[in-house]
Amino acid sequence: AQNIARSYEMNRGLWQKASTVQAVSDVTLSVDRNETLGIVGESGSGKSTTGRVLLGLEPPTAGTVSFDGRRLPFIGSAEWKTQRTRMQMIYQDPLGALDRRLTVSVQMREPLDIHRIGTPAEREARVSELLRAVGLSAEVGRRYPHELSGGQRQRVVLARALSTRPDLLVCDEPVSALDVSIQAQVVNLLSDLQAELGLAMVFISHDLRVVRQISHRIAVMYLGRIVEEGDADDLFARPVHPYTRALVSAAPIPGRKINGRIMLRGEPPNPAKRPSGCAFHPRCTDAIARCSVEMPSLVDLGGGRKAACHLAGAASQAMPPIARAAE
Ligand code: SF4
Ligand code: MG
Q1: 87-90 and 70-71 as β-strands: parallel, antiparallel, unpaired?
Q2: d(C-alpha 192, C-alpha 207), whole Å
Q3: Can you tell me the mean pLDDT for 111-129?
């Protein structure tokens, strides 16, 4: 995706003028086969919108999205429908993604039926094979969604998403609705399947811990823009942007029982009230005068790292590695 933007018209009641809310601005991202890109940010950071634009579920209001070297066709077009089987999305709520009236195997067969993949017998075999791949027994196929646990349901959704052999899988908060004990299982499963199938995967979450566990690269979003991007381990060990630093320092250390809440001062980001200059400046402990006036651009710092902060060049050298300091 190159310089994509997505804005929405927001109508504020009958007598007021509709205002335009910029959900995503100037986001450039790429994800390769065999790679997981994590997108992390608070709610309202534009990460879900980015995911939907990447899949062509929403057209960008500016910029371009390409898939496999070709410009993504428009949603609804015949070409888009073919392409669509190669790109799948997984959402937070597995129950909402499933049809309560149909058994698991019937709805898992659906994408295969629609796209006429294989003979009926082959489809049947594929369903059992997929259930096995996500660690479920064939017996689960005869059950209805409400008879399954949350973790089992998300496995079913995942199995169904894989049925068309996609090249790209976008997961939007796929484990946020699950018990913490189940979360790790599903994340491990996603990670295994990604490696096994050579998928390009985009993993969206507000939870930096989970994102770190699964991602090769991480992009941090704040109010519709990427503020930092880099190799996952490297970014975690040496965050450059003050926002990433805050996220990293608030992420609980494995083995210690702390609630994974992001502690940041000031108002949570609101896309309808975007601060001037660097959008993070009202909450930034390092802000200088320039920050409220001038928006920092995303600068390449070398080694695959990019950051959008006026202090980025200096910060990357002067700041101590936060992960080590916390140990
Ligand atoms: Fe903070 Fe300024 Fe950097 Fe924004 S540009 S993150 S306000 S120091
Ligand atoms: Mg979201």
Answers
A1: unpaired
A2: 20
A3: 88
Question: Would you say the CB of residue 280 lies under 6 angstroms from ligand 1?
Answer: yes
28-50 pLDDT tens trace: 888 999 999 999 998 889 999 99
Ligand nearest the Cα of residue 222 is 1
Distance 297 CA to ligand 1 centre (A): 11
Task: Tell me which ligand sits closest to the C-alpha of residue 266.
Answer: 1
Q: Please answer whether residues 205 and 211 qualify as being in contact, where contact means their C-beta atoms are separated by less than 8 angstroms.
A: yes
Sign of torsion over alpha carbons 84, 40, 45, 5: negative
Whose structure tokens read 């295994």? Answer: 192
> Does the pLDDT at position 202 exceed 90?
yes
- Please give the pLDDT value at position 314: 60
239 lines ligand 1 (CB under 6 A): no
C-alpha–C-alpha distance, residues 50 and 60, integer Å: 9
Tokens 């600068």 sit on residue:
299
Residue with the smallest CA separation from ligand 1 atom 5 is 309
Q: Given pLDDT bands bounded at 50, 70 and 90, which one contains residue 18?
A: low
> Which of 68-72, 160-164, 182-186 has the weakest average pLDDT?
68-72
Cα 224 to averaged position of ligand 2 atoms, centre (Å) = 12
Atom of ligand 1 nearest to the CA of 279: 4
Angstrom distance (rounded) from CA 156 to CA 158: 5
Mean confidence (pLDDT) of the chain = 85
Q: Rounded to the nearest whole angstrom, what is the distance from the C-alpha of residue 249 to the centroid of ligand 1?
A: 17
Position in ligand 1 atom list of the atom nearest CA 242: 6
Closest C-alpha residue for ligand 1 atom 8: 287
List of domains in the chain: 2-86+166-235 (3.40.50.300)
